[in-house]
Structure formats: C-alpha cells, structure tokens
Amino acid sequence: MTQDASLRFREFKMPDVGEGLTEAEILKWYVQPGDTVTDGQVVCEVETAKAAVELPIPYDGVVHELRFAEGATVDVGTSIITIDVAPGSGDAAPAEAAAVPAAQTEASPVAEAATEAAEEDKPKGRQPVLVGYGVAESSTKRRPRKQTGVPEQAQATAPVQAEMNGHGAPTAPRPLAKPPVRKLAKDLGIDLATVTPTGPDGVITREDVHAAAAPAQAAAPVAPVAPGPVSVPAPVAAGARETRVPIKGVRKATAAAMVGSAFTAPHVTEFVTLDVTRTMKLVEELKADKDMAGLRVNPLLLIAKALLVAIKRNPEVNAAWDEVNQEIVQKHYVNLGIAAATPRGLIVPNIKDAHDKTLPELASALGELVATAREGRTTPAAMQGGTVTITNVGVFGVDTGTPILNPGESAILAVGAIKLQPWVHKGKVKPRQVTTLALSFDHRLVDGELGSKVLADVAAILENPKRLITWA
C-alpha cells in the first residue's frame, strides 16, 4: 500500500522560475481539488520578486490538494499542489502518509489485521488532513528485518522521487525544462522530446524551444491570455489615519535593488536641455513610412536609437564593475533596458542585443516589451542581463529627474517631457519642441569626461537626427 500511494500521488514544488529567486507569492489558482489536469496545463500564477509567472503542471491526473491559499508566499522547493495521477484506483493516503519508514510499515500479522478492521470501520472517501500536520507517526519502534540487496521500497520510491523532481521515470524519461519553458513549448506546439538541449546538465532553454519552432512555416495563433490579477489594497476603515501594506513581490525586490545600487555605486548625474523639433518631425514622417507600418513609432524609439549610437561612439561606457574579481567588464553588446511602471510596481525588462537591430526591428521589440509589461506577463529572463537603461519620466509630465542605476549597469538615461517652449533658433526666438535629458552613471566606471561625451552625443543626434546616419 505504501508503494501504491507513493506511486499514485505527485507533489509539485514551487520551482525557481527566476534563476536564483528564493520565494514567490501565489496570486491565483486556476484549478480546484477534483479538477482534471493534463501535462503542461497552467494551474496557478505566482509573483516572484521580478515578475508574474504562470506555472504549468508536469503531470496528468486529478487535483488532490492545494497546499496554499492565494496570497501566500511560498519558499522555492516547497510543495504547493498534490496531483492524483491514478484516480479511481481506490482510496489511498497522500505521499506524506506513504513516507513512513519501512520499519514501521512491517507490522506483525496481528497488528495488520487490527489495522484492516479499523480501516473498515472508517467512512469511505478521502479524509482531510491539515496542511503541515500530515499523519502522525507511530510511537512504536521495531527493529527492522534483515534484508539482502536493495530493499523493494527503495527500488520503488527511487524512480518516483526522480519523477517528482521533474527528471522523469527511467521507463519514460521527461525532458529537463523549467515550467515557463514547458509552457512556451506547449504554446508553440513543440514536443520537448524533440528539442535538443543546450543548457547545463541537458536542460532545455527558451532559446532551444524557439530554435525548434523556427522551421515551422505557419504556427497556430496563441489564444490571448487575460491580464493577471492585480493586488487591490484592503478597504480603509472610516477615520483610519494610517494604512499598512505588506512589502513583497516586485516592490520588495525594487526596494532592495535601489538601496543596494544607491549605496554601492557612486552616482553622478548630468543634465542637458535641447531642441528636439527635428526629431519630432522625423517621428511623424516615420509613422507614414510603409516600412514602419504596424510598428510602434514614438520619440522613445529615436531616443533609444540615439543612445545606442552614442554607446557605439563611446564603448567604454557600456561596462560593469566586478567587485569580487576587481575587474571592469567591458560589454561588447547592448541589452537596452526600458523602465516600465506596472500595477505591480517598477520593472526594467531589456531588449537583448539592441545594438544589432535595425530601426524597424527596434520598434517591434519596443512595442512587444511595452505590451508584455502592461499585461503583467514580463518573464524574469527578460529582466536579466541589462547593460544600460532608459526611463521615460516625461510621460508623467515631469521635466527631468536623477535616476538610480539598475544594479549591475553603468548608466541610465532619463527623458523628460517634450514641451513647446520659446527657443533661440537661427538667431530668433521661436516656439520649439524642447526636452531635458539626465544621464546618471557609475563614477567607478565612468568619469566625467566620458559621461559628458555620451550625453552630448545623444543630445546632438536628437537635435539633428541626420546624425543617426552619419554617425552610425
């Protein structure tokens, strides 16, 4: 019976969906006890310190138990749901009850008869067990019987434990992949068994799935996913003078990152006010260009391109400080971060290898990044590996600011509101489109001269966008 129970119930543990994260909050359950689930089906949405992520279940079966309620914060590696993979095969206790040492299950024939009689007197059906309490272990201790070779229970539980850890049973090995990668494969219609893994220890990565999906000529469209639930503050009692809100999720991660950055990297911020009238005219022309049809064209697109060109002209600014090895790491690629305000807090996803993208490709990547962030579907991988960042505070009507560096990055450019202001143009005061840029940089990596050159180059391009061609 112990072997049957351990084979029948599967515990799905909170995975590390963010490469090193230690906990996640359960935002919403999509299933309830008694629901039938299939391998790859999304069962819940969790919020890590970086993003909201949907978790697919790696088993077929029936939901036996939800171990945590919505809103609970769960450590990585803790079981969050139990799946009955052999429903209809009779009543059995969950895996915890089956985990009693073998010495205690080998009772005498008299004890077994008494146990069976007691079981017959109990009402049929599943018996509720309080989460975290399980079934009490017997206080009776017996000397284990002598055995030769490997115990049968060890032989039975070894493949089960391997499958519970996501490694699959020896008779039918499961491809190694994290839950978000499994969901991506399911959405793209890719069988993970056919994907060649390139990750460490044979783990399939998102890039492997995309590579396997690339040859497909006409993939079926993926059904749109409704935006995830947004935490709503509890109603404030009438006359209350204070409200306390738990610090968790994105807000908790942002606070830790900003404190760490502000008190680790010595910040310097420089400002420049400039005439961007020509850039605004170019934006309007690009909107009417057939090559940019259907793409997101706005001032941020040209500001991003200007920053990329400035980095190309001043590559030393694109670096990182390695405190452990006492080295400056020069980056020969640009993963351009875009700060985005979402209902869950500030996140900074980045465009991988932005330096290699054409203007239409950059526009497409920006549009996808913004749409994904607004829907709350930004993945942890999309927020890792950034090198420099742009934050557009101008959308809030703000002229400028002193942005704090994203941890591990060397510079961040703040863009202020673009306003019609009097400006001296060709010797006459005329109304022109004017904005203010602010560049914060890590003074350990970037000295004043280099930082000034980068900011001056961005300003020069936006004042005369023809330099996008001559300087690129």
TrEMBL record:
Annotated Pfam families: 2-oxoacid_dh, Biotin_lipoyl, E3_binding
State the organism of origin.
Streptomyces xantholiticus
Q: Any idea what this protein is called?
A: Dihydrolipoamide acetyltransferase component of pyruvate dehydrogenase complex
What family is it from? Belongs to the 2-oxoacid dehydrogenase family.
Gene Ontology terms, MF aspect: acyltransferase activity
Task: Cite the EC number.
Answer: 2.3.1.-
Indicate, by first and last residue, each region the UniProt record lists as having compositional bias (Low complexity): 102-116
Cofactors: (R)-lipoate
Which stretches make up the Lipoyl-binding domain?
9-84
> Which enzyme class, named as a word?
transferase
For this protein, the parts annotated as crossing the membrane are none
Domain (Peripheral subunit-binding (PSBD)) spans 176-213
CDD domains reported in the protein's UniProt record: lipoyl_domain (cd06849)
Which UniProt key words apply to this protein?
A: Acyltransferase, Lipoyl, Transferase
**Region listing for Disordered, in residue ranges:** 102-178
